[in-house]
Amino acid sequence: MSKSKLDAGIPILTEVLEVPSANAEALIKPVRLHTAPGLGTHGAHEPLDVVDVPTIDGWLNEEWNRLERKIGGRILHQVMERLEADIESRVRDALADVLQIAVEGLASDIKQNLQTALNDLIAKAVKEEISHMQIAKK
User: Is the pTM of this model over 0.90?
Assistant: First the structure.
């Protein structure tokens, strides 16, 4: 097997990679995240998994608030898109059921009214024919 120049940067399974120094691990602190009220699957303030987030020194409260609003806006937008699609699907399904029941009821009423009208017409036609036959006999 020959190695091409493109493969030079890709480590192989037997190659030993350098581990980051202890100073790099000191920059990473675990942060416990909580769900927003009402969005958790098991409870309003149930903690999620611990996530390693590098510390950001020198950030002002204004920057944190801006980041929080930006992330909150994105999450709200994503939730609203999903919610809108879910509500639309549920309304469509419910309307389909209601319309199906209404159409079945309407069809039943039409059949019943048509049957009654046909019975009346047939009875009237038979009655007229019998009266014509009786007149013809006289």
Answer: no
